[in-house]
Known about the structure:
The chain is α+β, with helices and mostly antiparallel strands. It contains 4 helices and 8 strands. It has helices at about 40-50, 90-110, 130-145, 165-170; strands spanning about 5, 15-20, 25, 60-70, 75, 80-90, 115-120, 150. The strands form 3 sheets. A 4-stranded antiparallel β-sheet has the order 4-6-2-7. A two-stranded parallel ribbon has the order 1-8. Strands 3-5 form a two-stranded antiparallel ribbon. α1 (about 40-50) packs across α2 (about 90-110).
Amino acid sequence: PGPVDVIDGPVIASQRIDVSYTGKESHASSFPQAGINAADALTVAQVAIGLMRQHIRPSDRIHGIVTKGGDAPNVIPAHTTARYAIRARTLAQLEDVRARVYRCFEAGALATGCSLEINESEYAYAEMRHDADIAAAFKRNGEALGRAFLESSPRMERYAGSTDMGNVSLA
């Protein structure tokens, strides 16, 4: 699935994680010293991840969104949540990147005094190992139907995606 047809496009490993920080709610103007800001914990983690990006492989990816950032601007938030996806060329490389990303989230908790909970998706998506014989048969049949296929190139890695079909290809 994509804007062009490619026989053996890059499919990289991926793991989804949900992150939750818990601090202590407090009025932001009257009693800020009584709060433990869960939004600050998430901000520290996001900055750490952003700074780490210059030190990861070009094939590694880290994307995330804040799914809950607080309830009101005048209240120090006690709870924040985020969803992240971590990707790497292989499951082995994914493990390395995941450990580094976890340390970024731990830094947010340590810096603010919040507690941290990380939940991974049920399983990680593996990288794809294309079967040359099946790919050749698919290409012949596609071309017989008028489809045109681009040749793979190292440049194409930039457009890598992830799918559970990677797990199937390894099995």
